[in-house]
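Sequence in, structure out.
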Amino acid sequence: MKVGRSDLFWNYGASFMRVASGVIVLPLILRMLSSEDAGLWGVMMSLYGMIILLDFGFNITFTRAVTYIFSGATELKAEGLSPVHESGVINYPLLKGALKAMRSYYAGISVVLIIILFTGGYWYIEKVLNAYTGDKDVARIAWYFYLIYICYQFYTYYYDALLMGRGMIKRSKQIIVLSQTVNIIIAPILLLSGFGLISMVISQSIMAIVNRTLAKRAFYDAETKSNLLMAKAEDWKKIIKTLWVTAYKSGLSNLSGVFTNRMLAMFGALFIPLTTMASYGTLSKQVADITFTLSLVWFSTYYPKLTQERVMNSLNEVKRIYIKAQFITVGVFVFIATGVLLFGEWGLHIIRSSTPFLDSGLMTLLFLAALLEALTSVSISVLLSRNVVPYYKAQSVTALVTVAVLLLTLKFTNLGVTALIVVPLVTQLAYQHWRWTLMVIKELDIKLNDYKSFISNLPENLGLTKFIR
């Protein structure tokens, strides 16, 4: 698997387009929507975390399985690494069975998702709209159309695993650039035309359809379709059972990320006014999440390569990628956080936003929490690359503790948005944010000298030598 600068370039391009989407669309949201509608949109975006809940770790498990298969794996194992065919020949019967397993899994769970969203979603939106002063019927229409969008996104979720697992990083990011461009064009037109909250739902839905359609065409090229057509698929039910051993553990660990990050706005909206939630969920938290995504662009680009190096048992290369990812993650966070803290309010004044950032102290805490989450994400991804999930029990406990403490804090104190930041940060610091990084350091035998050596050759290690010259 070759991962080069063009893959990294397009990954940054895709991330830039996501940011550009926010830079272009977010100001219009803040100007064209009321604070209540902006807050409701922030809640709706956090609902997307439901996909990760019901995916239950299968997306990353399927991604890893596809990488193994295209690296020459002759079988898929419940835990540990699969034997690799010396010539790197692709086992098409195994691939065909894995593809059928993906389709069957996501089709079945989509039915469950529909039931959950259109029952629990009804109760939730009616409770949130009790104090809503805008047009409730329009808000309901936007809400239920967004639920349909989420169901479609989940049903086609495995296309992400196909492209990334195969190492088609460049093509995957090109598709994201195009689909984000569609969103950037459609959303402002609809917002300026007065469609309000529904504008965002329509633009997001069209973007998703474009993305999934192009991803399907990219993976199923002529050669792949021909070889799959001639292959007899291995038992997809057996593959599901095999992958379930690590998938359910990944799913349980994802609960920590969902409940301690993605669904915070939904919890907050039950206790905090939507106008206040707009400042947190629609603006400040979104900026922190964008920073989180940008900080991991380099690592996500090279993660399929790291996984392949694991299969080949090239631990020195795994170590090099891990250390470099840590430096890049911290560097991106420091750069962006400094810019937002110094010039963020000035930027909002320029676009005449009615929704401000949180105060500088809370913004600093929000960035710190996101940085630690990113570094922990890098560490657990390295552990996961060898097809083991040692952290799922601890992360599940963390999720339960976080939700319980957060709900009690919101109900019995006046901390409000401060609780949404401080409670998850403290519970994560208690164990998650140091345990798994320490495990990776021991596993890869990383010494202080490894970091010193990396720093001493920093320009070369970061690929900046030619720019300095």
